[in-house]
Amino acid sequence: MTIDMSIPGSSGLLNAVGKRNMKFFSNRYVLALTGAAGIGGFLFGYDTGVISGALLYIRDEFPAVRDNYFLQETIVSMALVGAMLGAAGGGWINDAYGRKKSTLLADLMFALGSLVMCAAGGPYILILGRLLVGLGVGIASVTAPVYIAEAAPSEIRGGLVSTNVLMITGGQFFSYLINLGFTEVPGTWRWMLGVAAVPAIVQFVLMLFLPESPRWLYWKDEKAQAIAVLEKIYDSDRLEEEAFQQFTGINTVMYYSPTIVQMAGFTSNKLALLLSLIVAAMNAAGTIVGIYLIDRCGRRRLALTSLCGVVISLVILAMAFILQSSSSLCTAAANGTCQGALGWFAVAGLALYIAFFSPGMGPVPWAVNSEIYPEAYRGMCGGMSATVNWISNLIVAQTFLSIVGLVGTGLTFLIIAGIGVLAFIFVALYVPETKGLTFEQVEQLWKERAWGSRGNCQSLLGSTA
Questions:
Q1: How far is it, in rounded angstroms, from Cα 208 to Cα 464?
Q2: Which of 95, 192, 217, 299 is the most buried (most CB within 10 A)?
Q3: CA 288 → CA 84, 164, 195, distances in Å?
Q4: Strand residues in 227-300 grouped as ranges (E)
């Protein structure tokens, strides 16, 4: 059997798109690839979420941490420094050595970092472990969505890539569950941080038996291997037709949600973790909604709707804290009742934020970033994008508590709401709709934006050469 690997003309693309009808659950092999790759997303979510609860007990064990906001922020954000470095290098590793080897390397970093944190005798060894885990997070954040996207049929690509986001939010939910489960166990935070080594080892073993990305294989001139993988994804007719999030506040919510809950007046560690667990559950549930909608409503509409809700909920959250800090609104006799009501109002704002963020701004950026870059530079560009993401993450995690101490919790959330407005404007003006498009159609879309009609001419010349 011979397969034409050249970029088809526009009529060929339209015919191919017209016949695309693969359903989300119709190919178990694709789902298996997605699930195995998604363990990296699970680890990503777990390791970024678990510190929120572990930090409460790390502060209790180490007086130097308890009395130092900067050290607390560093423990949280050192994983983000590692993620930034991992994403920057991970793009090059992906393009040079493939998606599979990149995943294996990420797993090694996850497992080593988890064990170092578990055994840490002081805050600085703990910070080293967070750095190692962060390297794994950074590499996984580049690799998993690209690996899934390159194996996914275009009509369900958004949903499959969003499954990786579900694994991230599921990992965050599981981290809160683990945090709550270990509250009465000796060595509380050590168990919380060390247990992440287990799924890292599981994914490492699974990846040894999974193939490399078919697109990467074809790009490296391993056509026979690429076709062998694609034959497990498409039927023979379909095979012949193929051609080869962060300043908006989610990091603040996921890294510091128990702390935010305590700021709202719920001082118990266990209650703070329980309320945060509910928020994390909503995040995972909302991602499932996003998986359903992303290939039906499109990326742009989902992102814009999500951002509208995010801004509204951040304003509600900000007002709850502003009113709570204004003693003039509560009489002395009713102060406790008033403060308690406003505390619940803040928690409601937090839940509303997650309800809007998780179906849209949760999965959409990962889906778009996995499909908008040219074939030869997909890993590198994805790494650059993820690096910017982690730089944003780092800034938020390293400064949130300090900004709260400087200007107050309410104004801090108003600042984040303003950034959400800027994000809405950016998406409305610059982000294209990629729903249902093949990688080749997306590339053609960018050519037309850059060169106008000349993009069509150059594409035609390239296909007839």
A1: 40
A2: 192
A3: 27, 11, 25
A4: none
Neighbours of 72 (CB within 10 A): 21
For residues 136 and 418, give the distance between their C-alpha atoms in angstroms, rounded to a whole number. Answer: 32
For 411-426, what is each residue's pLDDT tens digit?
888 888 998 899 899 8
Mean pLDDT along residues 355-379: 80
Give the DSSP letter of residue 185. Answer: S
> In whole angstroms, what is the distance from residue 417 CA to residue 343 CA?
19
- Burial class of residue 322 (count of CB atoms within 10 Å of its CB; 0-12, 13-18, 19+): middle
Residue in 139, 126, 155, 122 with CA at minimum distance from that of residue 50: 126
Q: Are 41 and 165 in contact (CB under 8 A)?
A: yes
Taking the C-alpha atoms of residue 306 and residue 290, their distance in angstroms, rounded to an integer, is 10
- Distance (Å, whole) CA 245 – CA 369: 11
pLDDT 10s digits, 323-351: 876 654 554 444 555 556 777 777 788 88
Task: Give the contacts of 426 (CB within 8 A, at least 6 positions apart).
Answer: none
Spatial distance between the Cα atoms of 432 and 452, rounded to a whole number of angstroms:
15
Helices first, then strands: H and E counts in the chain: 21, 0
Say if CB 363 and CB 170 are below 8 A apart: no
Place of tokens 């804290």: 321
Which tokens in the block code for residue 304?
């814009």
Residue 249 has pLDDT above 80, yes or no: no
Q: How far is CA 157 from CA 24, 151, 163, 175, 370, in A?
A: 9, 9, 10, 27, 9
Inter-axis angle of helices 157-181 and 123-151, nearest 10: 150
In terms of Cβ atoms closer than 10 Å to its own Cβ (0-12, 13-18, 19+), residue 411 is: middle
DSSP state of 248: G
3-state secondary structure of 304: helix
Distance, in Å, from the CA atom of 57 to the CA atom of 189, rounded to the nearest integer, reads: 6
Q: What are the tokens at 87?
A: 């994403």
| pTM of the predicted structure, to 2 decimals | 0.64
> What spatial distance separates the first Cα and last Cα of the chain, rounded to whole Å?
23
Structure tokens at 403: 């900004």
- Say how far apart CA 369 and CA 36 lie, in whole Å: 20
DSSP 88-152: HHHHHHHHHH-HHHHHHHHHHHHHHHHHHHHH-SSHHHHHHHHHHHHHHHHHHHHHHHHHHHHHS
The whole-number pLDDT of residue 245 equals 47
Give per-residue pLDDT as tens, 282-327.
888 888 888 888 888 888 889 999 999 989 988 988 888 888 766 5
